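Appendix B, example 12.
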Amino acid sequence: MPCYVQLIYNPFSQAARLMINHAGFARQGSKIQKMVIHKPMSHWLEALTCGYLQWNGFLPELIAEINEIDVDMVFEGNREDYSLFSEAVHRQAAALTERGFDPVEIRLTHRERFTIGQLQDQMRTLRRGWNVPVSTQSLMFRRDRLDSRLKSEMSAEETVSLIEDYIDLIRQIQKAADEAERMKVIEMRRAWEALLSREDKQ
């Protein structure tokens, strides 16, 4: 029976989460836990030496960890990252076979998540729901400049930068807010911070 592996990769927080047979991967101290969980893809996709740790690439390390060569794998993330991931995994599977290991049966599928369009829509929804007064004119001008950036076309990097700028603005508003408004501001800041960190965004 094949092993079911689900890899969720959020390009905005550059964090990976791994599920094996529908359970979160949590074996403390394992190479997978050290190299993959909550790390950017560039850190774990290909082989590398990291200090005393020799990393053989994602697929060889996964096969060693789960002790299974028949794998159904779902990659949840954006199309660009899936393309890089798929190419590397298939290349690594062929390399294992060339080195004399049993052929790896990997069935790889993709679920689209974390697209830039989805993130920008969530930003616009949060901005429309802005219910906190801005106390100073300089903060209002700053918010207006951010709002004009939100209306324009943005790359992924520009989108993440704009979220970070909104979070910084909200922190400034929080400092100036009176006690009655402070909790509303904190909730709003947390909602913006969640755009970069949530793994369950659809």
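Residues 3-112 form one domain. The chain is about 50% helix and 20% strand.
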